[in-house]
From TrEMBL, chain A:
GO biological process, alphabetically ordered: signal transduction
SMART domains reported in the protein's UniProt record: WD40
Organism lineage: Eukaryota, Metazoa, Chordata, Craniata, Vertebrata
CDD domains associated with the record: WD40
Subunit structure: May interact with RGS9; this interaction stabilizes both proteins and increases RGS9 GTPase-activating protein (GAP) activity, hence accelerating the deactivation of D(2) dopamine receptor-mediated signaling.
Family: Belongs to the WD repeat G protein beta family.
Keyword annotations of the record: Repeat, Transducer, WD repeat
Record-linked InterPro entries: G-protein_beta_1-5, WD40/YVTN_repeat-like_dom_sf, WD40_G-protein_beta-like, WD40_PAC1, WD40_repeat_CS, WD40_repeat_dom_sf, WD40_rpt
Cited Gene3D superfamilies: YVTN repeat-like/Quinoprotein amine dehydrogenase
WD repeat copies, ranges: 156-197, 198-241, 242-283, 293-327, 328-360
Protein name: Guanine nucleotide binding protein (G protein), beta 5a
UniProtKB/TrEMBL annotation, chain B:
Gene3D superfamilies the UniProt entry points to: 1.10.1240.60, Regulator of G-protein Signalling 4, domain 2, Transducin (heterotrimeric G protein), gamma chain, Winged helix-like DNA-binding domain superfamily/Winged helix DNA-binding domain
Identification of the protein by name: Regulator of G protein signaling 9b
Residue stretches making up the DEP domain: 34-109
Domain of life assignment: Eukaryota
Coiled-coil intervals: none
Keyword set includes Protein transport: no
Statement: the UniProt record of this protein carries the keyword Nucleus: no
Source organism: Sander lucioperca (Pike-perch)
Gene: LOC116061102
GO molecular function: GTPase activator activity
Record keywords, A-Z: Signal transduction inhibitor
Residue ranges of every copy of the RGS domain listed in the record: 293-408
Length: 360, 485
């Protein structure tokens, strides 16, 4: 900044700085007041309540399928509601549809590198994906293996920066996206119209998850500003915000009942946030785990939390007791994505080692 | 936005912002502690003595002890330390892993740590390669040679400077004592293996895309609102989470047995066949889930059909139909939204509507007013009202009804599979892809059309037969319970 030549401007600058400091202190005071309010109703810890719960036995989880076919880093995957098909996307221009017993069904070339987000439509008849092209496009699927899916694609979302995550809502007609431009947005697939946009993150938004049906109409997002925000889809307002992580939040996932959500971050911890109590209720961490978490997901009952880590491993946590139940090896590079199947019978991981693995 | 396009940066891979590095450094310092760290000793390697060398097995056992983990995890952790460049192998220097034997390693000097503030520049790499070339021609490996040629091309304008630096460094090195020189060469070589990895190897320095960080914007009003937000006592909400886990424990395939067997484990798809969305006879486990919550019942298509059947018998099927129409409006296409809203109004809300739903006056007033300028959430208030009505009243009666009891009676409880190894192999060979969702959707649409047709015909037929027998009773819906606030 150039020093002002006019003395008045100098005083103005000093005043501005003072106002900013004043605002910052006020902001800090308010934040600590919020924490005090939150603490007032905090009468018990999760692990205390969990003491009465039976412990978990030994687990034997193994890779049941290894899927090769991407010639490059796998960045994202999603399950089809039929519990057997998945779509996966990679660093270089492809997304792939795989029939899980398990053959390559379709490979589609996209005109951009780093396809970071992909999602299966609820009907199973379309997929959405996007990445460095700043867009999210929807591809209707076809029974014809030789058909060029790219020809029928629809460009739906347009952001001003990379697309980090996308998800269909309860139908094939709407898509929710998050972007490196710091916003999330809801789009109408047919017309590409922007239905609602969500502003509030101060940096890249890296992940999002829709609330399960009954609690509907809300979603949670996590960003590089270390915040996890809960949004009302109707009004576009942020209704709750949690800032306890020490680094970028790479993944957020709702607890199956919709009353809580888990997050995974570069600070090597996963955390559980209770939405009704409005606070963080558990941290899943270990001294020996120092590498970031790239993705998290719950088992069907919500008792287990699976986390894919940047040190190529998968850690399985007991959600209630806060302890680690198991560590799984197998991938030869960063685990970039992890999703449990819709009926909870298995989970799938995608990695920078070019493969996907199904574990059960 | 600072996304670096890999095509344009000529290999300038800048220092990544990897959050774990500070934590790794703490561990490294502990490891090098003279008393409590990894034990080291001078080792003879060929003709020189290398001071402070450590063995792979010592590293692994130190880590296992320090973090109280098993050997496999300690080995994985140790390999990450090598991959990041904090420890380097003396033998087999291109493979950045920890070997659980007497293989030798050394701690990298902090000058070459990845957390240093300066980026790993191609200029330095060029100087390094040139220096090695000066020392002994033809010593560069194939990929290094390729790098060298490429850099020579791109940095041609400063190549004199690079060669001069290389010669200077070479000359300075010759003046060092032999052991120091050997050590420094190893350190430098290790540094470049980490930051310019040979092709086909995994690099821990690969961190993906850059991200953007901005200072925080104004958020004070939001914080003020958050303070006023209603909260629930932790014991209550946490209690609910614990209860949820307990309720679903027996339904979680990772925690309880999947009947008859988990298809991923036995390659037998009976489990999926028995649990298809519109199956005639559901399994006992599935029916049990319908009793856990109203949302569970509605979200399962088979459950919803059962509920629909029950409501039909009670002549309150319009509630469910209305709720489904509202869902369709909320999540449907923007283009047809107004038409849908109009249609819903005419079918369910208007005076004398064919499937009139009973909602309280206030909600009706708000809804009708909103319908003048319809948007996708215009029916929210009415939908919530009807949902709560069904949840608090119909749902309970459904569970006591003959329809439900009949379903429970017919529900299947499959026997657990006990496959021999030979049978498992057979199963694996018989793997087949499932029906495409596209075909399934077509089938569903056909079925729905058929059902709609049959319902109309039976209604008409029953009306006709009744008219023949006696004067039909006036259609009289049962008295609706008072609307809940």
């Amino acid at each position: 900044m150039r020093s002002p030549l006019i003395p008045e401007m100098a005083t103005q600058e000093v005043q501005l700085n003072e106002t900013l400091t004043h605002l910052k202190t006020e902001s800090e005071t308010l934040k600590s007041k919020l924490e005090d309010e939150r603490a007032k109703l905090h009468d018990v810890e999760l692990h205390q309540v969990a003491e009465k719960v039976e412990g978990l036995g030994q687990f034997v989880m193994k890779t049941r399928r290894t899927l090769k076919g991407h010639g490059n880093k796998v960045l994202c995957m999603d399950w089809c509601k039929d519990k057997r098909r998945i779509v996966s996307s990679s660093q270089v221009t492809h997304f792939m549809l795989l029939k899980t017993f398990m053959l390559l069904e379709h490979a589609v070339t996209m005109p951009c590198t780093w396809v970071m987000a992909c999602a299966y439509a609820p009907s199973g008849c379309a997929v959405a994906c996007g990445g460095l092209d700043n867009k999210c496009s929807v591809y209707p699927l076809s029974l014809d293996k030789n058909e060029n899916l790219a020809a029928k694609k629809k460009s739906v979302a347009m952001h001003t920066n990379y697309l980090s995550a996308c998800s269909f809502t309860n139908s094939d007609m709407q898509i929710l996206t998050s972007s490196g431009d710091g916003t999330c947005a809801l789009w109408d697939v047919e017309s590409g119209q922007l239905l609602q946009s969500f502003h509030g993150h101060a940096a890249d938004v890296l992940c999002l998850d829709l609330a399960p049906s009954e609690t509907g109409n809300t979603f949670v997002s996590g960003g590089c500003d270390k915040k996890a925000n809960v949004w009302d889809m109707r009004s576009g307002q942020c209704i709750q915000s949690f800032e306890t992580h020490e680094s970028d939040i790479n993944s957020v996932r709702y607890y199956p009942s919709g009353d809580a959500f888990a997050s995974g971050s570069d600070d090597a911890t996963c955390r559980l946030y209770d939405l009704r109590a409005d606070r963080e209720v558990a941290i899943y961490s270990k001294e020996s785990i120092i590498f970031g978490v790239s993705s998290v997901d719950f088992s069907l009952s919500g008792r287990l939390l699976f986390g894919g880590y940047n040190d190529y491993t998968i850690n399985v946590w007991d959600v209630l007791k806060g302890t680690r139940v198991s560590i799984l090896f197998g991938h030869e590079n960063r685990v970039s994505t992890l999703r449990v199947s819709p009926d909870g019978t298995a989970f799938c991981t995608g990695s920078w080692d070019h493969t996907l693995r199904i574990w059960a | 936005m600072t996304i670096r396009n890999p095509l344009r940066d000529h290999g300038q891979r800048y220092r990544p912002r990897i959050a774990c590095l500070k934590k790794v450094e703490k561990v490294l310092l502990e490891m090098q502690d003279l008393k409590t760290g990894v034990k080291s000793q001078p080792q003879r390697l060929v003709i020189t003595t290398i001071p402070h060398a450590i063995t792979g097995e010592d590293i692994i056992s130190w880590l296992a002890d320090r973090f109280q983990v098993d050997t496999q995890e300690a080995r994985s952790f140790g390999s990450m330390l090598v991959a990041l460049g904090y420890i380097y192998p003396l033998q087999d220097h291109k493979r950045l892993v920890i070997k659980p034997d007497a293989s030798l390693y050394r701690f990298q000097t902090p000058y070459f740590w990845p957390t240093q503030q300066w980026p790993v520049e191609d200029t330095d790499y060029a100087i390094y390669l040139a220096k090695r070339n000066i020392r002994k021609k033809g010593i560069l490996e194939l990929h290094e040679q390729e790098h060298y040629n490429r850099l020579h091309k791109w940095m041609n304008h400063k190549w004199d400077f690079i060669v001069m630096q290389a010669k200077e460094q070479y000359r300075a090195a010759k003046e060092r004592k032999k052991p120091d020189r050997v050590v420094f060469d190893c350190q430098e070589r290790a540094y470049w293996v980490v930051h310019r990895p040979p092709p086909g190897t995994v690099s821990a320095m690969d961190y993906g895309l850059d991200r953007l960080i901005d200072p925080n914007a104004d958020e004070m009003i939001f914080t003020q609102q958050s303070i006023m937000r209603p909260r629930v006592k932790s014991s209550v909400s946490i209690g609910a989470l614990v209860k949820y886990c307990a309720t679903y424990n027996s339904h979680d395939p990772f925690l309880s047995k999947c009947l008859p067997s988990n298809p991923w484990l036995t390659d037998d798809v009976t489990y999926w066949t028995l649990n298809m969305p519109y199956v005639e006879m559901p399994t006992k486990m599935r029916v049990e889930r319908w009793t856990f919550s109203f949302a569970e019942l509605l979200s399962d298509p088979r459950g919803r059909n059962d509920f629909r059947l029950f409501l039909k018998k009670e002549f309150s099927g319009e509630n469910l139909a209305f709720w489904e129409s509202c869902e369709d409006l909320k999540w449907g296409e923007a283009a047809t939204m107004s038409e849908k809203a109009e249609h819903i109004y005419k079918t369910f809300l208007a005076r004398g509507a064919p499937r009139w739903i009973n909602i309280d006056g206030k909600t009706m007033e708000i809804t009708v007013k909103g319908l003048k300028h319809p948007h996708r959430y215009v029916l929210d208030a009415a939908q919530t009202h009807i949902y709560m009505l069904m949840k608090k009243d119909s749902y309970g009666r459904y569970q006591k009804s003959p329809v439900f009891k009949e379903t429970v009676k017919k529900a299947i409880c499959p026997e657990e599979h006990h496959f021999t190894d030979a049978q498992l192999e057979q199963n694996a060979k018989k793997r087949r892809p499932s029906l495409s969702p596209i075909i399934l959707r077509q089938m569903e649409q056909e079925q729905r059309a058929k059902m709609a047709a049959t319902v109309d015909i039976t209604q008409v037929m029953s009306k006709l037969s009744k008219q023949r027998k006696e004067a039909p009773p006036p259609p009289c819906p049962p008295p609706c319970p008072p609307p809940k606030k």
